[in-house]
Amino acid sequence: MIRINLLGTPKSRRGGSSGTRRTAPVALPSEGPSTLLLALIIGVIAALGMGAYYVILDKQHTALTKKLQTAMAENQRLSIVKTKYQESLKKQELFERRAKAIDQLKADQSGPVDMLNLVADTINKTDAVWLEAMTNDGKSVDFTGTALNPNAVADLMANLRKTGAFKTVEIRETAQDPQNKEVQTFKFELVCEIGKIQKKTT
Prior knowledge:
There is one protein chain. The chain is an alpha+beta fold. The chain has a domain of about 80 residues: Gyrase A, domain 2 (2-Layer Sandwich). The protein has 2 helices and 4 strands; from the N terminus they run αββαββ. It has a 4-stranded antiparallel sheet, with helices on one face. A hairpin with a 3-residue loop joins strand 1 and strand 2. The radius of gyration is 61 Å and the shape is rod-shaped. About 0% of the residues have low confidence.
């Protein structure tokens, strides 16, 4: 009886035979070239990224350097302005002190004159009193004079207070003048503490 193998593949026999044909293994494509290419691409991308980042940092550094230079120049300019301003303040203070010193000298010179004018006007406005002596020590003024009666002395004290130039007006002594026998007169002595003299405007 004849058997026909339609598949064309001979059946293997037990024990094997040297004439049996074996199928050769199929070779798979190697992955080496693809991995190397991918690594190369990644390296190029990384290098480009680092280059771009360096360019950005360089631009930022340049911009910050310019801002720093501008700030330093502005600071130097403000420092010069501040120095000039302080110098002007010192000059202004010096001028003010000189002006105050000149005003004080004028006040010291005109003080006695103003006091004399003030006292003269007050005596002229008061009836029956005559001023004989006046002593000014800078703090107080002593008046010595003669009045026809005690009321005239009281009027003089009231008029001196009205001037506003004296803080206090006090009578130290008053007594009848024994030397004047024809007319009754009274000797008086006043002590007035100096305040602020008000200058009269014409």
